[in-house]
Design brief:
mainly beta, 2 helices, Porin, 20-stranded antiparallel barrel, globular, 4% helix, 447 residues
Length: 447
């Protein structure tokens, strides 16, 4: 059985250059070059995997070489705000059955002030590595790059002495390396009004409209979406609260026998964070919303993503169908002088509009800890468990991941990390499989 990806041995994916080109241009805008802050690391990883394809039998053990470069770019001035982080890795298998690949992730936002307090131009990009088939384990031949790019202007204006208006226009381009049905062009518009109720609270009214055009109209149906909702937010020294309540509607532009032509549902989001002191933080988020892969990818962009340590494969179903998601996320973080601890349980329920193959109920939790043994020695680990039940397939999957690491800082720039990981996957419709991975990484950081 060959594990080759189509075009897997080609040069790094061209879509990545859309944003990178923009970053280089931004770096040379007047007055920005000197304030640009760049953090990067160059590393070389040797990985020993005892079951590369995560198969229940005929296991293939292999040593994989993974040199990589990670970076952070940031800039904050009156004319330009930029936050960008990413990583590129080369995977060399040393076996003709598997193509060597170049994989990457990238996450960032740019905001360019054209006219102060009146007009700006914004761009966001999310490049991730995702599975081709989420029902199969992560292995060579089951990975693809997925890119979502959004760009457009924002206009600010005054509606009344206490109301501020915001109008947005965005062009969104979505592309997957293998799953062509996902590829689309979108046009997003939004009109928002914001009123400050006090120094710590505000209310906003939001009207959002989206027009989605897929490249392959045979597999994916074009649709229009409208969201109307109000948001209340309150920010205190130790407590944050946000609440969205409204309505969403989807209208498909071409009827299809056996499928609905329109769908409407309430939109509800509630999130809060509580920091009783500097060592403890609790947070929770409850939502019931229409969404899709592209919208989720852009929403997940964080300004403080940090320097990526490796290119991980996600668990997102890449398809053209919007879905109704009901989800509860909770998190507790404890930070002490020498150690940190985090646990993050969740519940989720997904119902797809165009196909019910991936309709699922799931729950799980993540766990992370780190302990500073000495000033230059750190011990840490993480674990996760996820359980998904696919209703249409009458299938239940359970995935467990556990890893522990030891990091030694030789100097301010040089460090070495030894990591031992175990992956287990069981399914009611497939044979159980597991793999153990041992990695040694030598890294140079410029700061």
């Amino acid at each position: 059985m060959s594990a080759r990806l189509p075009n897997a041995d080609r040069a790094p994916r061209g879509r990545r250059h859309w944003v990178l080109s923009g970053v280089f241009l931004a770096a040379f805008l007047p007055g920005t070059a000197q304030a640009l802050r760049v953090n990067y690391n160059i590393d070389f990883t040797t990985e020993r995997n005892d079951n590369l394809l995560a198969t229940p039998q005929d296991e293939i053990g292999m040593t994989v070489l993974r040199p990589g470069i990670g970076f952070e770019v940031s800039h904050d001035s009156s004319a330009l705000q930029l936050d960008l982080s990413g990583r590129t890795e080369y995977r060399r298998y040393g076996d003709d059955r598997f193509n060597n690949t170049v994989d990457a992730n990238l996450s960032g936002r740019l905001n360019w002030i054209l006219v102060p307090e009146r007009l700006s131009f914004s761009a966001s990009d999310s490049l991730t590595l995702q599975p081709i088939d989420t029902l199969e384990p992560d292995a060579p031949g089951n990975r693809q790059q997925v890119n979502v790019l959004s760009a457009g202007p924002t206009l600010f204006f005054e509606l009344a002495p206490s109301w501020r208006g915001i109008a947005e226009l965005r062009y969104v381009r979505s592309a997957a390396e293998i799953t062509d049905q996902f590829n689309s062009a979108r046009y997003d518009t939004a009109l928002r009004t914001v009123k400050s109720l006090s120094e710590t609270s505000q209310i906003a009214l939001n009207l959002q409209a989206q027009r989605v055009d897929f490249e392959d109209d045979v597999i994916a149906r074009d649709y229009d979406r409208v969201d109307l909702f109000a948001r209340y937010s309150r920010t205190l020294a130790r407590f944050d609260l946000g609440l969205d309540i409204g309505y969403s509607r989807l209208d498909y532009r071409s009827p299809l026998e056996g499928f609905v032509d329109a769908r409407a549902d309430p939109l509800v989001r509630a999130d809060f964070a509580w920091r009783p002191n500097d060592s403890h933080r609790f947070s929770a988020r409850l939502s019931s919303v229409f969404s899709d892969v592209s919208t989720d990818a852009l929403s997940a962009i964080s300004p403080d993503a940090g320097l990526p340590g490796e290119v991980d494969t996600g668990d997102t179903v890449i398809n053209a169908s919007p879905f109704l998601e009901r989800r509860l996320d909770t998190e507790y973080v404890h930070t002490a002088t020498r150690w940190t601890f985090e646990i993050s349980p969740y519940l989720t329920r997904l119902r797809y509009n165009e196909t019910d193959q991936f309709d699922q109920n799931g729950y799980g939790s993540g766990f992370d800890f780190s302990w500073r043994v000495r000033e230059n020695l750190q011990l840490g680990g993480n674990a996760s468990i996820t359980r998904n039940r696919y209703l249409r397939l009458d299938r239940q999957d359970e995935t467990k991941r556990v890893s522990t690491y030891l990091r030694y800082d030789r100097s301010r720039h040089w460090s070495g990390t030894l990591t031992l990981s175990r992956y287990e996957r069981s399914s009611s419709s497939a044979a159980d499989a597991s793999q153990n991975i041992l990695t040694l990484t030598i890294s140079y950081n410029n700061r």
